[in-house]
């Protein structure tokens, strides 16, 4: 479908290559135990994952700050479980979470396989809304940093996906036209619609079986990228 058209492929990182949910769960298991916070981990994660998505949407829309995101998602999670916790402990957990998250390096199935397949014929890049201080650590600790020519994050761009400025910055740094670029990501709004607005080709990675759509082709396993390139 994209053969002969695409020269550069831009990947989202969290929830696309780097298994955020699995690594986040392992991080919480570690830091909650270290702080002697006794909660049922599956119950905590069920609440936290939903709230984290809500807070990231607000953050993408510039409606809250990074600090508000880090505090609010934890505070509301403990409140929902009826677990009393001080603001000082929440601040400590927020710091510990960021400090330890990138030490886990679980990737989605077939990540290395598809990067090995693509690297000889395409230039590969990352476009991420994640925080600058940990995104490169994630890539390095997962041993995939060297696959990518450019790593562009929202703090570098001053805006977050789906804002066109971050996609245009990525194109500028890569030295390529959107017409020759493919964006692959898991978030329909931020990755797919945001990239399409700038002129990218797009491929939606949808391992969670979110509702189908007709904006672009959808894959559920990264190995399916071979069907298009």
Automatic annotation (TrEMBL):
Pfam families: Hydrolase. It comes from the Bacteria. InterPro entries: HAD-like_sf, HAD-SF_hydro_IA, HAD-SF_hydro_IA_YjjG/PynA, HAD_sf, PGP-like_dom2, Pyrimidine_5'-ntase_YjjG. One of its GO terms (molecular function) is 5'-nucleotidase activity. CDD domains: HAD_Neu5Ac-Pase_like. This is Noncanonical pyrimidine nucleotidase, YjjG family. It comes from Poritiphilus flavus. The lineage of its organism: Bacteria, Pseudomonadati, Bacteroidota, Flavobacteriia, Flavobacteriales.
């Amino acid at each position: 479908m994209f053969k002969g058209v695409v020269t550069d492929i831009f990947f989202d990182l969290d929830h696309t290559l780097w298994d955020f949910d699995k690594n986040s769960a392992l991080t919480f298991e570690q830091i909650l135990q270290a702080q002697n916070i006794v909660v049922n981990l599956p119950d905590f994660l069920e609440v936290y994952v939903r709230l984290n998505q809500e807070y990231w949407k607000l953050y993408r829309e510039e409606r809250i700050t990074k600090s508000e995101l880090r505090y609010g998602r934890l505070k509301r999670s403990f409140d929902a479980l009826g677990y009393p916790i001080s603001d000082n402990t929440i601040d400590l957990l927020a710091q510990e979470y960021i400090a330890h998250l990138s030490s886990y390096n679980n990737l989605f199935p077939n990540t290395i396989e598809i990067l090995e397949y693509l690297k000889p014929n395409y230039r590969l890049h990352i476009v991420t809304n994640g925080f600058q201080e940990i995104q490169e650590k994630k890539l390095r600790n997962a041993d995939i940093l060297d696959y990518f020519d450019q790593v562009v994050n929202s703090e570098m761009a001053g805006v977050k996906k789906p804002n066109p400025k971050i996609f245009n910055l990525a194109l500028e740094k890569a030295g390529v036209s959107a017409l020759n670029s493919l964006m692959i990501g898991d978030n329909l709004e931020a990755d797919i619609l945001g990239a399409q607005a700038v002129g990218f080709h797009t491929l939606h990675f949808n391992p969670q079986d979110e509702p189908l759509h007709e904006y672009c082709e959808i894959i559920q396993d990264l190995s399916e990228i071979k069907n298009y390139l």
